[in-house]
Specification:
It is a single chain. This protein has 193 residues and is of the alpha/beta class. It has a single domain, classed as UDP N-Acetylglucosamine Acyltransferase, domain 1 (3 Solenoid), CATH 2.160.10.10. It has five helices and 15 strands.
């Protein structure tokens, strides 16, 4: 009985997360039937469970079906925490060894991509880690085995190839970071780079 109860609890949590992040949502029913980001996460959970149990081909086929239906590609090997939300998710790509903590939010067009290292074999971590509470703006590309620290924000269209410490604002091409508190204070004062 624990399985179905846990499943219903997670679905409710996902819907509540979508409502909290999207002020345009009108109802839980609307989210349940019409939010592709939520559907992609649900499909990933099934594919990831199959992947972990060794049903790799079935998991990959399911992930490609999920991609076809939602426009969001999440490799079944990716590890994703709770309360993950993808807003307007078309074009999101999450690679095989990506790790996402709890309360992560991605906008459309985000790529969590790999960088192959010469001589690295199968199973080598080559995709980013996003710690808890990270938000990634539309079109951002985070590439390679790097870590974006807890509570950080990655700006739209940033190209990130280096680690960012917790509570950073990460912007630009190539991306630079600074403490999020400093960036927030500058914005309040009307100071721009």
């Amino acid at each position: 009985m624990d399985g179905p109860v846990k499943l219903v609890s997670r679905v409710r949590e996902d819907i509540a997360t979508a409502r909290a992040h999207d002020p345009a949502s009108r109802s839980a029913l609307e989210i349940f039937v019409a939010y592709s980001g939520v559907h992609a996460v649900w499909g990933h959970r099934v594919a990831h469970a199959l992947w972990r149990r060794g049903f790799r081909l079935v998991a990959r086929v399911l992930s490609q079906l999920n991609r076809f239906l939602t426009g969001i590609e999440i490799h079944p090997g990716a590890t994703i925490g709770r309360r993950f939300f993808i807003d307007h998710g078309m074009g999101v790509v999450i690679g095989e060894t990506a790790v996402l903590g709890d309360d992560v939010m991605l906008y459309h067009g985000v790529t969590l991509g790999g960088k192959a290292r010469r001589g690295a074999g199968r199973g080598t971590k080559r995709h980013p880690t996003l710690e808890d509470g990270v938000t990634v703006g539309a079109g951002a590309k985070i590439l390679g085995d790097i870590t974006i620290g807890t509570g950080s924000t990655v700006g739209a269209n940033a190209v990130v190839t280096h680690d960012a410490p917790p509570h950073s604002l990460v912007v630009g091409v190539p991306a630079q970071f600074r403490p999020l508190a400093d960036a927030t204070a500058d914005a309040a004062r009307g100071v721009h780079d």
